[in-house]
Specification:
mainly alpha, 12 helices
Amino acid sequence: MAATQIETTIQDVKREKPESNFRRMWDTLTQNKAAVVGMIVILFLIFIALFGKWIMPYDPNLGDMAVNKQPPSMEHWFGTDEQGRDIFSRIIDGTSVSLSVGLKAVSFALVIGTVLGAIAGYKGGIIDTIIMRVMDMMMSIPDILLAITLMAALGRGIDKAIIAIGLVTIPEYARIVRGSIMSIKDSEYVQAAKVIGNNDFVIIFKHILPNVLSPIIVRATLGISTAILNVAALGFLGLGVQPPYAEWGDMLGRARSFIFESPYMLIFPGLAITITVLAFNLLGDGLRDAFDPKAHH
């Protein structure tokens, strides 16, 4: 009889998120005009990343010195760079690089950070101490400095940049997951899951994590903007995407020598970075309000 009551308790907890709850979150999100703008911009950027190669007017990697450093015109909407490459085409091409790096780096950090945070929060004791002290050591170093150090060890290239950016953001997710799990691991349904014989893996990943997804999703959305900024910073320093491929930070780094002669070479990739980061930040703030509508009221 007791076992039946425990199973009923678990089933009741699983039914705590009805369809109306999703509808409420969606309505809250869509009522936030800034978040809607961010979502529209992100969808547009995803479209550009997926189909950009069919709409860019020129080969982004093919230069023509006969038309180098030309200002914006009807022929070259954003002008040309020092090698005569069309800046508009290169920004379109760089969209897929920035978005893919942001998503891959965040996914990498999210998986590892979630596992470490879950183990630390659920197990506690010496395991928690060891994991979180390592996380604290990583967080004591500014993200970009740690990423540069890792890049120096790993070498240049976009794949190395994904690993470096992912590694430096693992502590953020680990701390969020740990804190969320510690706040609910003594809940009735968790204790009930233990009583009926579920092992730690099932309890953590089936019963606990689904109930702490909200802060993780919000942080991951905001984390993409941070990852895009970091990859742009690495590209600016010449550590990210290598020539001749297009990447916004690399474009800024190469254009800094022409800041007074051809300022448009910096303006357009700079705007691309700014708009993309702002869009993810707006959506992230909107998601935070949607998951917790009382947070700012």
